[in-house]
Amino acid sequence: MSLMEVDGLTKAFDGKEVVKDLSFGLKTGTCVALLGPNGAGKTTTLRMLAGFTHPTAGTIQFDQQSLTTDIRQYVGYLPQFPTFHTWMSGLEFLVYVGQLSYLTNAEATDRANELLEKVGLEDAKKQRIKKYSGGMKQRLGIAQALINKPKLIILDEPVSALDPIGRREVLNLMMDLKKDATILFSTHILNDAEEVSDELLLLHHGELVEQGALENLNHLDQTGKIQLNFSVYPEKLESQLKNLSSIKHIKPVGQGVEVVVSDMDVARIEILQLVMTKEWPLTKFEQAKTTLEDVFMKVVNS
Amino acid sequence: MQWSVIFKREMMEYVRSIKWIWVPIVFFIFGIMDQITMYYLPKIIDATGGMPEGAEVNIPSPPPAEALFMSINEMNTLGILIIGLLSMSLIAGELKSGVYELVLSKPVKYANYVTAKWAALSTLVLASFFIGLLAGWYYTNILFGELAIDKFLVAFLVYGLYLLFFITIAIFVNTWFKRPGMVLFLSILLIIFVNIITSILGHFLTWSPGHISSYVSTYLFTGNITTEMWGTIGTTIVLIIGLLYAAVEVLKRKEL
Amino acid sequence: MFEINWALLAPLFIVEFILLAVALIDLIRIDETNGPKWVWAVICIFISILGPVLYFIFGRRP
């Protein structure tokens, strides 16, 4: 089932399109990573989906209804650099945003306390926010995004600015949130995307260049690396390999070479035939799994 | 209700930042300082012997109406400056720091956001102005002679409207610029502009808000509320509503 | 010298004192100010009325 359907989403600032004709769907209960280098249009996209930046063109369908109501009621949003009224305490701030989301004072207080416990800020809830560390602010930011039990949680670069401990805390929290909500988060760090997301949207220069489940992406991609090792390094190995049609790049690594190939199936046959005719002492033939990084680099460079 | 949530939070901020103490005190001082100075001035000149031998010190004691108007004169300069400083980061500050983005991601209505902030600042300013003018009226009565309380009340209401007009200008400018210094500069520039236009084209623009202080002055002397004064009150209210509406619309269209 | 009517001036001195006291107490309790704290303390004490007001507007960090 689809929670959100985006069609032809476009945003232009002063005539310059920063997001171009995005179309994709978010399935209920999935965790989707919006991946792209800095300046790819991630933040603008997320702001449009969160309902407070208006698209230049395109439609956003939420929960199978065309949007006539305010989408912000159903979405929780964490900005890239969340800032708060730092003179308030964590609890006061959560109650405030809860009430902004039409909860009563009592409801907001209950929900705020529940969330502060969930994100591990229970001991600091009466402290002024200005005393919070970066990681604590980020967790408070996530708590405020959850205040109205949103169906969709949108997080803009939730872990990029954090130290390793803070990053781990937030990633664990996201794993936990996946159980009962749909998450869309942006990142430029591949590991984070790989770790928690089920699906990927790859954004580059405002365009959606790749999308789908993680496994499918790897299949789709026919280019890859093959690692060859020999007990004795053969003479003219590199010049011989270079003649093969499927091989694009050769890099010597220890007792062998790493080759980048354009078509995995063709390369496999070509290389093995060459090894057999030349009687090279092959000790290892490893087809390296295409990592997200490879896909990313390929897409970005193409 | 969302509006009152924002209003209350704004009030809480004024309490925590001690504005609810210092702003009324400052307006109180503005309200009485001219009366006290005026009262003591002849005596000070006398005592310091600043006048040449034989010259008579003859500064006539001002009539009560003029004495109360001195309070308003202080509001017109220093008061406006303080209000400008209070409002320069009301919305601009939140836009600049980024709190605005977080608040905006909640289902907050722009009109609630703008008018609640406007109402909160107006409450602080009008309460402080009330205290200041009341003190000025009290000192006028004991130092310069009796002035009826309805003079004080009308002066408070009508000049209070002018202060509201200035607050609204500042709020409107807040939605355009992020830099508080810029907001302060432009708000004050705009109010000066209104006054200059009024003084040049005053004969045609008899209903301009720029006339409010002079109309209040006339009223204090004569006790008559003229048609022009009613016209000015009407124009000012219309302008306040228009500027608030414009501020909401600008904010709606604003890209972060 | 002329008679000073203290009853007349008392309210002015009282509010001036309150303003100074509030500013100094706040200055002690606050974590950070824009610029060194002692400078603000000097400004508050030596410039009557205007000093504390300047501190409240420009010295306090929110």
UniProtKB/TrEMBL annotation, chain A:
Family annotation (SMART domains): AAA
Pfam families referenced in this protein's UniProt entry, alphabetically: ABC_tran, DrrA1-3_C
Origin: domain of life: Bacteria
SUPFAM superfamilies: P-loop containing nucleoside triphosphate hydrolases
One GO molecular-function entry: ATP hydrolysis activity
Gene3D superfamilies reported for this sequence: P-loop containing nucleotide triphosphate hydrolases
Domain ABC transporter positions: 4-230
InterPro entries: AAA+_ATPase (IPR003593), ABC_transporter-like_ATP-bd (IPR003439), ABC_transporter-like_CS (IPR017871), DrrA1/2-like_C (IPR025302), P-loop_NTPase (IPR027417)
Keywords: ATP-binding, Nucleotide-binding, Transport
UniProt family annotation: Belongs to the ABC transporter superfamily.
PANTHER family: ABC TRANSPORTER RELATED, ABC TRANSPORTER, ATP-BINDING PROTEIN
Protein name as catalogued: ABC-2 type transport system ATP-binding protein
Species for this entry: Salinibacillus kushneri
Taxonomic lineage from the root: Bacteria, Bacillati, Bacillota, Bacilli, Bacillales
From TrEMBL, chain B:
Membrane-spanning segments: 20-41, 78-97, 118-140, 152-177, 184-209, 229-248
Superkingdom of this protein's organism: Bacteria
Keywords: Membrane, Transmembrane, Transmembrane helix
Keyword Transmembrane in record: yes
Signal peptide: none
One Pfam family linked to the record: ABC2_membrane_2
Originating species: Salinibacillus kushneri
Keyword Hydrolase: no
Descriptive protein name: ABC-2 type transport system permease protein
GO MF annotations in UniProt: ABC-type transporter activity
UniProtKB/TrEMBL annotation, chain C:
Segments forming a coiled coil: none
Topology in the lipid bilayer: Multi-pass membrane protein
Residue ranges constituting the Cardiolipin synthase N-terminal domain according to the UniProt record: 18-60
Subcellular location: Cell membrane
Gene Ontology terms: cellular component: plasma membrane
Major subcellular location class: membrane
TM stretches of this protein: 6-26, 38-58
UniProt KW Transferase keyword: no
Keywords: Cell membrane, Membrane, Transmembrane, Transmembrane helix
Pfam family, one: PLDc_N
Classification via InterPro entries: CLS_N
Domain of life: Bacteria
Full protein name: Phospholipase_D-nuclease N-terminal
Originating organism: Salinibacillus kushneri
